[in-house]
Amino acid sequence: MIRDEDYKRAQEEWVSNCTGGSIQEILAVCSSLITSHLLWSVLNKRDFIPVNGFWIQLIIYIVPVMANQTVLADHALLVSVGIFSLAILVSLSTSPSSKDSKDATSQTGYKPYLTVYRAGIMMVTCIAILAVDFPIFPRRFAKVETFGTSLMDVGVGAVVFSSGIVSSRAYLYQKPGETKIRALSNAIRSALPILTLGFLRLVLTKGVDYQQHSSEYGLHWNFFVTLGFLPPFVTLASFLYQWIPFSILGLATAMGYQLALYQGLQHWILDAPRVDLISANKEGICSFVGYLAVFLLGLDSGTVVFRKSLDDTLESKLLGLTKAPKIKQEAAQLTLRTIFLWSVLAGWRLLGENSEFFEVSRRMANLPYVIWVVAFSLTLLASLVWIECFIPCAGRGPELLDAVNINGLLTFLWANILTGLVNLSMRTLYASTITSLSVCFGYMMVVSLIPWVLWRQFGIRIKL
């Protein structure tokens, strides 16, 4: 029998000193979100089988990406190829139904592809925060210690980016007469509940002596605190939006922060002792600047998604798409951004191939990390937009993902609570493959069921 203190130490060592994996493999793991949505869209258009139930959508969207993060991690690309092949087979062997083929965007202004992207990222993140404690989760997917790329590293950044996208509506269509003081006051008020969750998480984890990896955010900081501080700081940055685009604000923030890292901040973050409250939470405080840049770049992408017309934009004029449907312009412009950022990241890493200064670091949320997260997120988003270009989606899209999206923060909170309960009730590190898969599947079923019941059955939307 292993003592509780020894097991806690073993858990901390399990998630420490990880070096990550390749960017290509991370894309392969998450590509099942794209092919799963393609399959759902084809099935929905063909009336092949009922696709709006809880269980069928759990199987189509959740099971593949969970398998890719665990037992099929070495064959993730084959999973996506299999789902894609199935979608093509169904498309070729059946005839489209007589459903109204107009897309939801033209009818209601709702964007199903954005729901799939946001809820899909949330599901990937929720799977990882529990699965990482089981031996079926590859170590290369766990958060890296300092430099490198991993699935969990990009997941937290993608959540911030997706929040930036949906927040852009507030800045595109600001209420007339709203003063800067009122806007800042509203931002602070919206931040307080999330900061409270961050404080409660700290108290609870300390109270039950839950394992903690201090180099992730520090001794007291956590991801909820990062999310909580974003609204007021973004509001302050948005005061410059009428003169400076969000893209410039985001890149300037990331580049200024990278310069500070080069001038000595990186050495302080990695090597300084934790002697006071600031140094005790140096990772969380400093990485917040990088997440702020990610959020600002999300706002910039959101202006493409939510602007009423893109006909007069430079990108549409250069691509000759001024007369094309707006969704096609969205797909093209997001793809253009994606190609540009992947090129910048490749050039940056090639430039400093043997220098840590040019490496991706989630721990510091440096410039390479910001570019990688945004490029990754735009790859998924642009792919989903292209699917909707060719297979318009009527209504609000997949009902399960719609429910998760509606109660996104609650879903994430619920997943964190369940993760803690599972870890306190069993020795996850020593679970067999069957036990690990069973627990992870049951956990994802419960995580998905709560927002489904709240929204689909009772119409409840809890805005934290």
TrEMBL record:
<feature type="transmembrane region" description="Helical">
    <location>
        <begin position="154"/>
        <end position="172"/>
    </location>
</feature>
<protein>
    <recommendedName>
        <fullName>GPI-anchored wall transfer protein</fullName>
        <ecNumber>2.3.-.-</ecNumber>
    </recommendedName>
</protein>
<feature type="transmembrane region" description="Helical">
    <location>
        <begin position="370"/>
        <end position="391"/>
    </location>
</feature>
<feature type="transmembrane region" description="Helical">
    <location>
        <begin position="289"/>
        <end position="310"/>
    </location>
</feature>
<keyword id="KW-1133">Transmembrane helix</keyword>
<keyword id="KW-0337">GPI-anchor biosynthesis</keyword>
<dbReference type="Pfam" id="PF06423">
    <property type="entry name" value="GWT1"/>
</dbReference>
<feature type="transmembrane region" description="Helical">
    <location>
        <begin position="73"/>
        <end position="92"/>
    </location>
</feature>
<keyword id="KW-0472">Membrane</keyword>
<feature type="transmembrane region" description="Helical">
    <location>
        <begin position="403"/>
        <end position="422"/>
    </location>
</feature>
<feature type="transmembrane region" description="Helical">
    <location>
        <begin position="248"/>
        <end position="269"/>
    </location>
</feature>
<keyword id="KW-0812">Transmembrane</keyword>
<dbReference type="GO" id="GO:0006506">
    <property type="term" value="P:GPI anchor biosynthetic process"/>
</dbReference>
<dbReference type="GO" id="GO:0005789">
    <property type="term" value="C:endoplasmic reticulum membrane"/>
</dbReference>
<feature type="transmembrane region" description="Helical">
    <location>
        <begin position="48"/>
        <end position="67"/>
    </location>
</feature>
<comment type="function">
    <text>A acetyltransferase, which acetylates the inositol ring of phosphatidylinositol during biosynthesis of GPI-anchor.</text>
</comment>
<comment type="pathway">
    <text>Glycolipid biosynthesis; glycosylphosphatidylinositol-anchor biosynthesis.</text>
</comment>
<dbReference type="GO" id="GO:0032216">
    <property type="term" value="F:glucosaminyl-phosphatidylinositol O-acyltransferase activity"/>
</dbReference>
<feature type="transmembrane region" description="Helical">
    <location>
        <begin position="184"/>
        <end position="203"/>
    </location>
</feature>
<keyword id="KW-0256">Endoplasmic reticulum</keyword>
<keyword id="KW-0012">Acyltransferase</keyword>
<comment type="similarity">
    <text>Belongs to the PIGW family.</text>
</comment>
<dbReference type="InterPro" id="IPR009447">
    <property type="entry name" value="PIGW/GWT1"/>
</dbReference>
<dbReference type="GO" id="GO:0072659">
    <property type="term" value="P:protein localization to plasma membrane"/>
</dbReference>
<feature type="transmembrane region" description="Helical">
    <location>
        <begin position="223"/>
        <end position="241"/>
    </location>
</feature>
<feature type="transmembrane region" description="Helical">
    <location>
        <begin position="113"/>
        <end position="134"/>
    </location>
</feature>
<feature type="transmembrane region" description="Helical">
    <location>
        <begin position="434"/>
        <end position="455"/>
    </location>
</feature>
<keyword id="KW-0808">Transferase</keyword>
